[in-house]
Amino acid sequence: MSNTKPRIVITMGDPSGVGPEIIAAALADPSIRRICRPLVIGDAGAMARGIAIAGTDLRVLRSSSFIPEDFSDALPILEITNLADEDMRFGSPSIAGGEAMFRAICEAARLCLAGDADAIATAPISKEAMNRAGHLYPGHTELLAELTGAERVVMMLAGTQLRVTLVTIHESLADVPRLVTFEGVLDTVRITHRDVHRYFKRDPRISVLALNPHCGEGGMFGDEEGRIIAPAVEAARREGIDVVGPLSADTLFHFAVQGDYDAVVCMYHDQGLIPLKLLHFDDGVNVTLGLPIIRTSVDHGTAYNLAGTGRASAESMKAAIRMAADMALVKASGEGEL
């Protein structure tokens, strides 16, 4: 790690959304500048507009690398696009904006893989705009997995009270039962254990949720628990992982937030994200586990209804940067490494 603070690259996200303004608000916070050296990747015009909307005193500083720590009034940006006004109208994602999002993510991954940055914190993107620009990925997670050569990645949403990981992510609910497989559950448990142990909590205790109500009630409401999930949990336990399950989702979260478990493996998106966002709507962080690099993100979308109003909360952006910096410090120190 270069210098005394982690070098965090921050991707601008969709310039038609709240990304530029929440980044500007986050980087104007002295507590954020004390813990990291930031470099925004994106469009200087969009970031200048974001600074004005956030009402900060920062100044745009075009830079090809991380700047010295004492430039506390500067928002350093590695400019990769020069978007026209019509390409970044609030609430109207564009093809040019989708290309800008894609290029920013690629450059951030390149910097981390080359050892020129210590972690990535991403602002929200428009998957539709990125797809319209010809980059057919469901989101950040899948793109970063391809860019880094990761065979299997896991989405984790985290806050101070709860961490959840997902076996399936952005899938139709009707497709989830066939996508919950023995290998998928076991791999999710393995990666959750490895990276929670590595970055957050030594020897974590992990719980695994059932797919069906009341764990299937002995097969009355489905048999995935006995046929798939329980065998995967037992296989993980034989590998030395401290894991229990399958457990009913309607009661498990009560015990998880009391501290009985360090992470909860969930079968599908809303099973985990509803309780997480109930507790951590403003300060939740999306972490991609299983990558060879560190990546965190806000846990919300582009918020087009708030874009340009100055009312969007920057708390999740701040939390994502803080978590990226903390993880980078742990990685640099070697503490927690398996």
From TrEMBL:
<keyword id="KW-0560">Oxidoreductase</keyword>
<protein>
    <recommendedName>
        <fullName>4-hydroxythreonine-4-phosphate dehydrogenase</fullName>
        <ecNumber>1.1.1.262</ecNumber>
    </recommendedName>
</protein>
<comment type="function">
    <text>Catalyzes the NAD(P)-dependent oxidation of 4-(phosphooxy)-L-threonine (HTP) into 2-amino-3-oxo-4-(phosphooxy)butyric acid which spontaneously decarboxylates to form 3-amino-2-oxopropyl phosphate (AHAP).</text>
</comment>
<keyword id="KW-0520">NAD</keyword>
<feature type="binding site">
    <location>
        <position position="140"/>
    </location>
    <ligand>
        <name>substrate</name>
    </ligand>
</feature>
<feature type="binding site">
    <location>
        <position position="214"/>
    </location>
    <ligand>
        <name>a divalent metal cation</name>
    </ligand>
</feature>
<dbReference type="Pfam" id="PF04166">
    <property type="entry name" value="PdxA"/>
</dbReference>
<dbReference type="InterPro" id="IPR037510">
    <property type="entry name" value="PdxA"/>
</dbReference>
<feature type="binding site">
    <location>
        <position position="286"/>
    </location>
    <ligand>
        <name>substrate</name>
    </ligand>
</feature>
<comment type="subunit">
    <text>Homodimer.</text>
</comment>
<keyword id="KW-0664">Pyridoxine biosynthesis</keyword>
<dbReference type="InterPro" id="IPR005255">
    <property type="entry name" value="PdxA_fam"/>
</dbReference>
<feature type="binding site">
    <location>
        <position position="277"/>
    </location>
    <ligand>
        <name>substrate</name>
    </ligand>
</feature>
<keyword id="KW-0521">NADP</keyword>
<comment type="similarity">
    <text>Belongs to the PdxA family.</text>
</comment>
<keyword id="KW-0479">Metal-binding</keyword>
<dbReference type="GO" id="GO:0050570">
    <property type="term" value="F:4-hydroxythreonine-4-phosphate dehydrogenase activity"/>
</dbReference>
<feature type="binding site">
    <location>
        <position position="295"/>
    </location>
    <ligand>
        <name>substrate</name>
    </ligand>
</feature>
<comment type="pathway">
    <text>Cofactor biosynthesis; pyridoxine 5'-phosphate biosynthesis; pyridoxine 5'-phosphate from D-erythrose 4-phosphate: step 4/5.</text>
</comment>
<keyword id="KW-0963">Cytoplasm</keyword>
<feature type="binding site">
    <location>
        <position position="141"/>
    </location>
    <ligand>
        <name>substrate</name>
    </ligand>
</feature>
<feature type="binding site">
    <location>
        <position position="170"/>
    </location>
    <ligand>
        <name>a divalent metal cation</name>
    </ligand>
</feature>
<feature type="binding site">
    <location>
        <position position="269"/>
    </location>
    <ligand>
        <name>a divalent metal cation</name>
    </ligand>
</feature>
